[in-house]
Write a structure and sequence with these properties.
single chain; 5 strands; alpha/beta
């Protein structure tokens, strides 16, 4: 049974098997994937669900319903329902936290000082401390001295990599305001470190400052061009941003890094890693997968964020906005909810559906009667 299978990405053939198993599992439930959550109420989608499942679940305590996304079943549920839930759990990508010390034996996590973490909340501080240490470890292992921080935001990661780990960093972001904030913040940090070095007698030691580039990364070619020119003393001409520049960068290894690289930006980083010889590693924490662009069956080309896999392209799988939004839901979030919070969430969806139906009904009547 699929619910008892153990899937993995250890080899290309095993990865292909996993992808095809997911596609086969999703096919019968396409009507759910294509529907927004309020459509369950508005379009009476429960009528398409197995009656035995509905009769069972409508009597269940809220806490049991909140456990379903995590793959938790009850012994007395119908066999077909249990198999559906356990299959979805078996096919899901594991979310257990990795033991970083096993993956990267040389990793050294350090607590950052208040100067570097100014403006960060606890979550951001934790993310930056962990990711910066990982980037540093990977960079040292491949001999990369230059990091290209893609979607750098206000420069938190870039500044830690520059000042704390003494790496050369190019910080790329589409927002010019973020670039200015990064530069101003870096100047303040530089003054702190310069004063500290004077006290220690290290006046001859140069301080690395992140170089900022304001550019909306629209293609793999563009990111390749930026990566290849990243070591040319930070001099970026506008002509260099078209993706049509000659390869005049050095052969020194580069590492692409991204914290919350949104939507297609994470995909562009991966494609650049595959297509740019100078880029020897990529360390990326993606986000906003619901914003991935999708190609249709007639135009599965490299400019779209999904699908990347040739297997998925050959299978003709399209997700659609509703299923991408659904995929962003966290099973852990639902599992950790108390009963009242869970009920409140269900009520919000049902009230929104009722409101939507009421508004559409009034608009229909207004159009029929010539109202405005």
């Amino acid at each position: 049974m699929a619910s008892e299978r153990k899937y993995s990405c250890e080899t290309a053939s095993k990865t292909r098997e996993w992808i095809l198993a997911i596609i086969d599992f999703l096919k019968p439930y396409r009507f759910f994937l294509d529907a927004h959550v309020v459509n369950f109420f508005k379009d009476r989608l429960w009528e398409a669900v197995d009656k035995e499942w509905i009769d069972c679940l409508r009597k269940e305590p809220v806490q049991n319903l909140l456990q379903i996304p995590s793959g938790v079943v009850q012994d007395y549920w119908p066999a077909s329902l249990k198999n559906f839930i356990l299959c979805s759990k078996a096919l899901a990508i594991p979310r257990e936290q990795a033991d970083l010390q096993k993956v990267l034996p040389d990793l050294q996590l350090t607590s950052l000082n208040n100067v570097l973490t100014q403006g960060m909340n606890r979550k951001k501080k934790h993310e930056i401390e962990a990711l910066a240490a990982i980037v540093n470890s990977v960079a040292r292992s491949i001999g990369a001295r230059t990091i290209v921080d893609v979607g750098s935001g206000q420069g938190y990661l870039a500044q830690v990599l520059s000042f704390h780990y003494q790496l050369s960093v190019i910080a790329i972001d589409a927002c010019s305001r973020h670039g200015r904030i990064t530069e101003l913040r870096a100047e303040r940090i530089k003054k702190h470190y310069a004063a500290k070095m004077r006290k220690s007698g290290l006046v001859d030691r140069a301080l690395n400052m992140p170089k900022t580039v304001t550019c909306r990364v629209l293609s793999t070619n563009m990111l390749k061009a930026l990566s290849r020119s990243s070591q040319n003393k930070g001099e970026y001409e506008h002509s260099n941003l078209s993706g049509q520049v000659a390869d005049k960068g050095s052969e020194s290894p580069l590492l692409l890094a991204g914290l919350h690289a949104c939507g297609d930006l994470s995909v562009t980083m991966l494609r650049t890693f595959l297509g740019c010889d100078e880029v020897k590693a990529v360390v990326s924490i993606g986000c906003c997968y619901n914003l991935l662009s999708e190609g249709g069956p007639e135009n599965f080309d490299s400019q779209h964020g999904f699908p990347m896999s040739e297997v998925t392209k050959d299978a003709g799988l399209l997700l659609g906005k509703s299923s991408r939004d659904l995929a962003c839901q966290s099973a852990e979030r639902w599992r950790g909810m108390e009963r009242d919070a869970g009920l409140h969430n269900f009520e919000l969806h049902s009230f929104r559906a009722a409101f939507q139906m009421d508004v559409k009904g009034k608009l229909y009547v207004a159009n029929r009667t010539g109202g405005s």
